[in-house]
Prior knowledge:
mainly alpha; two-stranded antiparallel ribbon; 7% strand; 6 helices
Amino acid sequence: MKTLFSRRNVLMSAAGVVVVGGVAFEASRVLRKRYAPSPYDDLLAKLDDRDGSAQIGEAVLAEIDDFDAKTAAAQLRTKLQQASLADIATADAAAERLVEAHGWVLPQTLGLLCALAAKAAA
């Protein structure tokens, strides 16, 4: 009777796990939604849901009269080099740096990032 844990069985199992892991990794990369290139892709990569953020961004843009995407992007790049989006959003909320979007109140940095997503989607 053959032993269940022979060297060959263990090596074949390990190879199978590596192959399945590689296929799963590549599939997630290939199946990910693609967006048209924009000058803000480095910033928009920080958003978990770019489409949902663009919808919020449309509401933010409706509240801002003189939104300048280039200026906002430069400011966001400077801020996001120093800390994470979560940390900056928390600091914005604590300092009452907020924007309104159809009755929702958002930290300013997150609102501006969503506005850039809306501009990129347009």
